[in-house]
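Appendix B. Chain record.
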Amino acid sequence: MSYMDRLKARISQTPYVEELTKLTKPGSVGFVSEPSRHDSGNSSDDVRSLLLEWRDGLARLDRDKPRGGVTYSRWTEIYDDAVVVFNDWARAAAAIGWSELDLFGVDPLVVDDLTAAEDAPHGLVWRLHGRPVERLVDSRAQYRLRSGGLGMFPRGGATACVPIWRLSESRK
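Structure tokens predicted for this chain:
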């Protein structure tokens, strides 16, 4: 079984998503709560629905077939980051009100212009560049920079985006 086959199998495993629908209490690993201006969160049914939607969206992607004019090397990085974010942070993110655009959003008008794209209001996955998320709260995420410091990603800025699975397939 190839790497891609194993990865797609892991994403599409229903028992994994079923397990994720049972919320843990605040303060558990990967879940931190704090007051903010954002929604207070989602019900367990909403969380389950979001996880299924995100899982299905990611399962439609192919790591070896870039979309939306994104270069191959950048696409594989985005794809890998999306899978890690889904597997490690999706349940907590959905529970505290993060949207698919907050996590997986990209601006389809600038993804092929790398200079403009880095400053555009994309979702968290676009910002990671292979760096790990360290903390996720309702208003922001922190991720490890290559320098060792922490980068900050504010939630809510990806309103003009589409989820990566809705980017058109590239013809490159």
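Further analysis of this model is presented in Appendix C.
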